[in-house]
Amino acid sequence: MKNEKSLLRMNIVITGHVDHGKSTLVGRLLADTLALPEGKLEAVKAHCKKNGRVFEYAYLLDALDDEQKQGITIDSARIFFKSAVREYIIIDAPGHIEFLRNMLSGASRAEAAVLVIDAAQGVAENTRRHGLLISLLGISRIIIAVNKLDSCAYSEAVFKQIETEYGSYLAGLGVFPQAFVPVSARAGVNITRKSAEMPWYKGPTLLEALDSLSGFSETQTDSAADTQAEFFAMPVQDIYRFSDDGDERRIYAGTVVSGSVSVGDAVLFLPSGKEAHIKSVETWHTAKKTSVSRDEAVGFTLCEELYVRRGEVMFRAVNTTQDVPGTATILNANVIWLGEKPFEPGKKYLLKIAALKVDAELIKIERFLGGELSGNRIEDNSSMLCRNDCGSVTLKLSSPVVFTSFSLNATLGRFVIVDGYDAAGCGIVISGMDSRTTVKQKIIANDNPPDYAALKKGGFMRQRQKDRFSLRLRVVGGQMNSRQLMKISEAAERFGKGYVHFTSRQGVEIPFVALSDIEAIKAELADGGVEPGVCGPRVRTVTACQGNAVCPSAHIETSKLAGALDSRFYGVELPHKFKFGITGCQNNCLKAEENDMGIKGALKPNWQDESCSFCGVCAAVCPAKTIKIDKEKKELSFNTENCSNCGKCVLSCPENAWKGESCYVLSFGGSFGNEIKTGFSVLPPVFDEESVFCAASAALEFYKKHGKKGERFGKTIARVGIDEFKRFMSENFV
Length: 734
Prior knowledge:
28% strand
């Protein structure tokens, strides 16, 4: 076992629907890892016996009177325990929808999550809700504990059904759990020990699965190399002066949130941009220090006298990492709204990020996320978020703030929105830009090369010309409005050479963007509602024809479907690029089958013999020649197996003897590029959008499971075998 000083630390949240066994699971973890105070377990058992109650491990946690009476967890309790390799701060969050705010306050402090599902009850509405909230908070390290399997006779089929159903749902959110673990918290099965009750399960115990996770806020006090590799950051919580006691030092105090720094290092304060050198490290009631690292609460004096405000963030002026924070007056973020009053444009709010507070205004709701969260259908054109709604939004701030993505640094990547005196919303930062001037990034030394992989991921593709990039824009379904087109024109004139390139996949690119102008052009475009696209091994922007909103031949609403697919899957990391293509009819303007997943609108025909005059028009227009008519005998034959569902018979019939039902024809593994391939058809036509989403989730899951780096989806299918792919899709497509 490791020395206690070398143990890592991780914050995890335990969440799930009410009565699915979260508190019991945590209580069992504490008992089985010997983390309880001496005599605590016996005392609780004695109390239960005295009051005529059956002992539950949940009683070790549910300390509030209301919880004891109602049997539910109301607050977010913080519990500590250790494994052989790590210290855990475990947050037991409430599952009831009425205590959603409490659940969020717990989950927002976590870097990993255990989501508990009752095997007997299955995936509840709140189970989906908590998965969505965890994904919006940016928590990617997730373990699913399928609990109470003892009530199902430890059935493998029950476990597999939940694993398939919930795994598909999470994949639609871009979340892929590290493990699904079958357990019985009450019986202590598969919590910390392997068990004979489930010989069919070969995976880790819950504790082993937790220990296998990697955390971004882990502290390891004996490894200076880890913290040195990070950028150093400390939000300034206050500046102390003790002049009345004859002490003229100005002490800049706060808690280090990442990296390390030493006396003599050059530091930079953002967003003010002021620079200085560290003179001394000041601590309270500890030995004198010359360096500090992550999670330490300290103060600094500087060689140069600076006036900086509370809320600024101090960085080391030269870092080895490319992933450094930026400053912004406009934030793109995912927000969860919990306020009684709606979150609406034109109203001033207070945004708190790290130690900084600034006024904020909602500019635009880019898209709604998870309409099922509130239980209501959310209209796409709504301009506000109501209670329990989630959305991807654009916020305008009164002054610059320092930010990172949540995955890079939790403290600088999440925020709270205050409405009056109410903490009404919370969110995580997706991206940001300065609406007035480009912030000169002083943290990276000038001789460091650009991170071309990160630039490519953000839509900036290298040109032949040195330090010039072609910016690929996010054009969902080929749709842009006139305001966006005007802004693209202005940006091309200002930062390019005055022209744009339209790609074969409905894309728009602005070439000849200088490396030094990258942040500026992003800010300029964001002001007009234009986002960069993506490149590299991930889901690309969805393409689509205009669909039945415009085209008389189309059978489906392609633009709406493209937006929904984009919101669910855009940017999901994969072994290679992955493209969705949607076309509204069999005219196939976008060549759906030449995409990794093609979606083609169709019309499934049904002949009504009582209305038919046997005129022969349908047989004449049928391109597949599946309809045969004998006018003299008044007979019609229809070969349904060879029918392409083009709908021409329905549309041309003068007697309305053919009726049609709109549907979606799906194909998988096509490609257009170095090698043109037509995708495989392994599923019958489907009749609703949810089935399309389910098929997409299953296809991406197959690709992540079997794909090799640099291998296109179609080649993965061919290598693994079309029969295996068909079996997988049939089993995982519900």
